[in-house]
């Protein structure tokens, strides 16, 4: 029973360690799969681990291959409730074949070295990683999913009529996939799928540590309901008390949703008939109906705004584009945390995610002028992002706008761009290299300190 362990972030040493003796209670930054040491993952094994019993496991997927992040965030809950947690350092947004190889390697390595309860295998993911996590569950391996900031994989068939696993979804109030999770809540309810959707104060990101702990506790409840874990009356009562205390008094819609979730989660574990009647009555009340209607109208407004941005990116009036982007940026930066600010930030985030994907395709097709329009909008929304400004310089150079390309490259340098070899290798800058402004920007880039590792793209 041996694992290959990475001892530093810079160099992977292959060291054999007996799992029961060397892993329990430790978070390992890098573990190399024994069958393929190019496949890496972060790992946490609870301190109570012993190979004499089987343990639940959560396999995690991040859109930027930052598998250590979810392992760290789940560590406290994993220690408390006895879960193994592994996060792929290879799986990322991209071709499914590469993800499939990473999944297979990590799962096989963990299961070959640690005592895993195959009836309690779960997955977790962020954004595109959430879609990977859900795809794994759709394939039959996982019995439950923690999906942060995204839901099911995009397909013509949509959500299946019967969902064979439990689903815990999260989204921030400023998350551009917030609407997707809200809609998914209704879809899963219509399919009578076991699920819970929680909205938190945040953006497009891994759920906070306390919320991920709630997700693990929810897995525990569901395991008790379906018989894969022995029922613990004390735990159930404590969970009921904590969840009941967290039900908001207002607004009516939030109260109704929280109480409805309580009924769904605890039915079969305790008598919820009294609360079930209250939920039915509240759901039929005028305040809840009015708030649902207002929510649908707000969602439509948000979708219309996204469509308008798409039209601008497709070649609308430059003056109108500048006016719209300036207005949205101003609304996104107001001090007060209003519903409008949250909505606008979701729209800007969504446009940023789709815009980056669109410009990537435009570059591949040689549509540099079109890419420049989108990138100019992105630069207006999020000033000072070196990556966006660098791509804008590339697009303008490709479109033959030498002066504007040099301006954007200098702005990228001033924003901290530090990848000089990439700039020097960029073919689109071929006609710029003899320009003094290019040499000035390049010198600045060479002198900049290394930039922090970028986050994975959202989807």
Description:
The chain is an alpha/beta fold and 459 residues long. The protein folds into 2 domains: 2-230, Rossmann fold; 299-447, Alpha Horseshoe (Serine Threonine Protein Phosphatase 5, Tetratricopeptide repeat). The chain has 17 helices and 10 strands. The chain has helices at residues 19-22, 68-81, 96-113, 128-138, 178-190, 209-226, 233-245, 252-266, 273-283, 286-313, 318-332, 339-364, 368-381, 386-398, 402-414, 420-425, 436-447, and strands at 2-6, 16-18, 27-32, 40-44, 55-61, 84-88, 116-126, 144-148, 166-172, 195-200. α8 runs antiparallel to α9 and α13 (368-381) runs antiparallel to α14 (386-398). It is globular, with a radius of gyration of 25 Å. The chain starts with a strand and ends in a 12-residue tail after the last helix. Residues 1-20 have low confidence and may be disordered.
């Amino acid at each position: 029973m041996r694992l290959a362990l990475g001892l530093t972030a810079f160099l992977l040493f292959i060291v054999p360690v007996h799992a029961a003796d060397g892993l329990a209670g430790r978070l390992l930054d890098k573990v190399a799969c024994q069958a393929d040491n190019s496949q890496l993952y972060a790992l946490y094994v609870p301190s109570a681990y012993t190979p004499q019993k089987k343990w639940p496991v959560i396999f995690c997927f991040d859109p930027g291959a930052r598998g250590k992040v979810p392992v760290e965030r789940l560590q406290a809950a994993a220690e408390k409730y006895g879960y193994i947690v592994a996060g792929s350092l290879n799986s990322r947004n991209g071709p499914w074949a590469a993800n499939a190889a990473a999944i297979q390697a990590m799962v096989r390595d963990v299961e070959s070295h640690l005592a895993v309860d195959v009836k309690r295998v779960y997955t977790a993911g962020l954004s595109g990683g959430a879609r990977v996590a859900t795809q794994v569950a759709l394939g039959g391996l996982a019995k439950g999913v923690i999906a942060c900031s995204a839901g099911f994989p995009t397909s013509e068939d949509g959500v299946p009529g019967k969902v064979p696993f439990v689903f815990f979804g999260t989204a921030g109030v400023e998350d551009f996939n917030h609407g997707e999770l809200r809609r998914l809540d209704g879809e899963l309810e219509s399919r009578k799928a076991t699920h819970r959707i929680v909205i938190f104060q945040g953006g497009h990101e891994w759920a906070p540590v306390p919320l991920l702990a709630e997700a693990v506790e929810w897995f525990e409840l569901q395991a008790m309901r379906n018989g894969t874990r022995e029922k613990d009356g004390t735990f159930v009562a404590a969970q009921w008390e904590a969840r009941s205390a967290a039900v908001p008094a207002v607004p009516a819609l939030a109260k109704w949703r929280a109480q409805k979730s309580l009924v769904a989660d605890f039915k079969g574990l305790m008598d919820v008939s009294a609360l079930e009647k209250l939920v039915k009555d509240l759901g039929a009340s005028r305040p809840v109906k009015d708030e649902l209607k207002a929510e649908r109208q707000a969602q439509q407004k948000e979708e219309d705004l996204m469509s308008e941005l798409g039209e601008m990116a497709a070649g609308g009036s430059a003056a109108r584009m500048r006016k719209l982007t300036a207005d949205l940026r101003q609304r996104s930066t107001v001090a007060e945390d209003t519903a409008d600010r949250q909505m606008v930030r979701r729209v800007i985030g969504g446009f940023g995610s789709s815009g980056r994907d669109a410009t990537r395709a435009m570059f591949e097709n040689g549509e540099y002028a079109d890419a420049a329009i989108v990138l100019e909008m992105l630069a207006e929304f999020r000033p000072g992002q070196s990556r966006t400004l660098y791509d804008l310089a590339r697009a303008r150079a490709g479109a033959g706008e030498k002066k504007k390309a040099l301006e954007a490259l200098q702005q990228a340098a001033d924003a901290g761009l530090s990848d000089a070899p990439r700039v020097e290798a960029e073919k689109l800058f071929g006609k710029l290299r003899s320009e003094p402004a290019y040499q000035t920007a390049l010198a600045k880039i060479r002198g900049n300190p290394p930039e922090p590792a970028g986050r994975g793209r959202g989807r």
